[in-house]
Design a protein that fits this description.
14 helices, four-stranded antiparallel β-sheet, globular, binds pyridoxal-5'-phosphate, alpha/beta
Length: 389
């Protein structure tokens, strides 16, 4: 069968290869410790599940408006106003099947062939695939651990050319847990406004921030910044709702209309029941529960860092957000895929190679798992490094 040039350019995800191998080994009964999860290990809060059951029983089982119900969009606008100091109207919001879908739609709407989108490394690997699938060109902006894996505004400025459409900002970030301060974002916004490019602000890990840091939304810098920002968020990570598939965009209403047009010919509305659940998540009084989850993640991060404190061949970059530990394994002499494959086969621990995230000397260790498993997995990794690397 002859496939499109578009799909032929996209590589199957290397991370999936590791995760599916780990799953297969588990199924065979092998004792595998998996540090691969991209989702919280907590269950969705009961009140949210109950709202979904209520929605089913109330017959909310039909199509909704393509871009989401008005009541969900109103809940999103309230959330953005109260928590992010951003005022959007309902017609500036469009709900999709997860933030991944929101981002995919954005690329379809803004990219013409050969248009460039700036992506700050290390980055969530789907960004580049989405840009390519839209016919665009991902342009990677390298950062370094010495700079806290943060982009320098001037590097954005010098990467912009007449083909540059946007830069993706992801704070807190996957995979390194980088959190930008408001003044750092302001400087980035200044450069983007001066150069006339859009800012796509992926804020999906907004609530998972540690060490007293505060989340900042780049759109809140000024009216001009807001007008040039496409804000993306969702319920997956904050409310442990990855399977429900609800994400959203808040942006200029013309862009929102275009995204709705795409959805009207592709997915139609996101699942009606999930929309009711998401509305509950955004309005229910569950702040205490979310805070417990955040603290639990922070405790696990600190535990992991302690376990690796005197390990010089796997050196963690301390994340200020999200739930991943990005570790420098370059001193082992192995590239990230070789490291991950061998570790899985020889010691039955699954980590995600950093290569596809733009940093081949690193692996990503998810701490969306229990303290016991963290201790067991890290003990095995350290033994393996001692024995073989
Ligand atoms: C940085 C980042 N953005 C967006 C997403 C997508 O989240 P969802 O599609 O579940 O809303 C993920 C999921 O892993 C992510 O890591």
């Amino acid at each position: 069968m002859e496939f499109s040039e578009r799909i032929k350019k996209i590589q199957p995800s290397a991370t999936l290869a590791i995760t599916s191998r780990a799953k297969a080994m588990k199924k065979e009964g092998q004792d595998v410790v998996v540090f691969a999860a991209g989702e919280p290990d907590f269950d969705t809060p009961d009140v949210i599940k109950e709202a979904a059951v209520k929605a089913i029983n109330a017959g909310m089982t039909k199509y909704t408006p393509v871009g989401g119900t008005v009541s969900l969009k109103e809940a999103i606008c309230r959330k953005l106003s109260v928590e992010n100091r951003l005022n959007y109207e309902v017609d500036q919001v469009v709900v999709s099947c997860g933030a991944k879908h929101s981002l995919f739609n954005i690329m379809q709407v803004i990219c013409d062939p050969a248009d460039e989108v700036l992506i700050i490394t290390p980055y969530w690997l789907s960004y580049s695939a989405m840009v390519e699938l839209a016919g665009g060109v991902p342009r990677l902006l390298k950062t370094s651990p010495e700079n806290g894996f943060k982009v320098r505004p001037e590097d954005i400025g010098s990467a912009v050319n007449e083909k540059t459409k946007a830069v993706i900002i992801n704070s807190p970030s996957n995979p390194a847990g980088v959190v930008y301060e408001q003044d750092e974002l302001n400087k980035i916004a200044e450069v983007c406004l001066e150069k006339g490019i859009l800012m796509i602000s992926d804020e999906i890990y907004e609530k998972l921030i540690y060490d007293g840091k505060k989340h900042a939304s780049v759109a809140s810098f000024s009216d001009e910044a807001k007008a040039s920002t496409i804000l993306v968020n969702g319920v997956s990570k904050t409310f442990s709702m990855t399977g429900w598939r609800i994400g959203y965009i808040a942006a200029d209403k013309d862009l929102v209309k275009k995204v709705s047009t795409i959805q009207s010919h592709s997915t139609s509305n996101p699942c009606s029941i999930s929309q009711a659940a998401a509305e509950c998540a955004l309005t229910a009084d569950i702040g205490g529960r979310l805070e417990d989850n955040r603290r639990e993640f922070m405790g696990r991060r600190d535990f992991l860092i302690k376990l690796l404190a005197d390990e010089d061949k796997m050196v963690p970059f301390k994340p200020e957000g999200a739930f991943y530990l990005f570790c420098d394994i370059s001193a082992t002499g192995l590239d990230s895929l070789e490291f991950s494959k061998r570790l899985l086969e020889e010691k039955k621990v699954a980590v995600i190679p950093g290569g596809p995230f733009g940093e081949d000397g690193y692996v990503r260790v998810s701490f969306a798992t229990s303290l016991d498993l963290i201790e067991k997995g890290i003990t095995r990794i350290r033994e393996w490094i001692k024995e073989s690397a």
